[in-house]
Amino acid sequence: DTGVSQDPRHKITKRGQNVTFRCDPISEHNRLYWYRQTLGQGPEFLTYFQNEAQLEKSRLLSDRFSAERPKGSFSTLEIQRTEQGDSAMYLCASSLERFFGPGTRLTVL
Amino acid sequence: SQQGEEDPQALSIQEGENATMNCSYKTSINNLQWYRQNSGRGLVHLILIRSNEREKHSGRLRVTLDTSKKSSSLLITASRAADTASYFCATDGPRCEKLTFGTGTRLTIIP
């Protein structure tokens, strides 16, 4: 257990539905990162926060994706109008060493 | 896009043998890190080596870094069945903002 938690651990949804994931980082870490990992691949960077400020967003983060980190604590990642191609493991990490949470596995039917 | 490439893509060895995995990357780095991932689980941070370091040890792990060749290796000595997992290298740039992963090596330890 790295101290980073994610909720839910699994999410199955129908195409077109919206989903929201939550990440709770290690409390004293001010950097928080989101990654996406598809089967057989390494994780790919999506976005990161320094406290509450979102400082960089990958081109992978289409306009259907939005991430927030109110008050610089937990973070949420929302996907609107899900597509089957969004099926992946969504990973959250905190600090420069990137202590990763267990991930949320999304399946879009 | 993936920054690095791990080599080999898959490796099977007998328990007790040493396992060596290699990673190559393309651009200048600040740090290089190795992670382990068990099937369907999150990533576990193993070791970080800075660009001005050449070798680092942690228990049964030994990591080397050759910035002139843009490559790193991870050696696991006296392998155990519990070492069965995928291993990824990851690099970040000068501002340590974005960690870029390789494609991973799938290691299987045969009891």
Describe the structure.
The complex is a heterodimer of chains A (109) and B (111). Chain A is an all-beta fold and 109 residues long. Chain A has no helices and 11 strands. With 111 residues, chain B is mainly β. Chain B has strands at residues 5-7, 10-14, 19-24, 31-37, 43-50, 55-58, 61-66, 71-76, 85-92, 99-101, 105-110. The mean pLDDT of chain B is 90. Classes of the chains: A mainly beta (109), B mainly beta (111).
Helix-strand makeup class of chain B? mainly beta
Distance between the termini of chain A: 30 Å
Number of beta strands of chain A: 11
Spans of chain B with pLDDT under 50 lasting ≥5 residues?
A: none
Q: How would you classify the helix and strand content of chain A by structural class? A: mainly beta
In which range does the helix fraction of chain A lie?
under 10%
Average pLDDT score of chain A: 92
Give the percentage of residues in beta strands of chain A.
over 45%
Q: Note the overall shape of chain A.
A: globular
Coarse shape of chain B: globular
Contiguous runs where pLDDT drops below 50 for at least 5 residues of chain A: none
> Secondary-structure element sequence of chain A?
EEEEEEEEEEE
Number of strands of chain B: 11
Count of helical segments of chain A? 0
- Give the biggest sheet of chain A: 7 strands, mixed
Give the termini separation of chain B: 36 Å
Overall pLDDT of chain B: 90
Helical amount among residues of chain B, as a percent range?
A: under 10%
The quaternary state of the protein chains shown equals heterodimer
What is the CA-based Rg of chain B, rounded?
13 Å
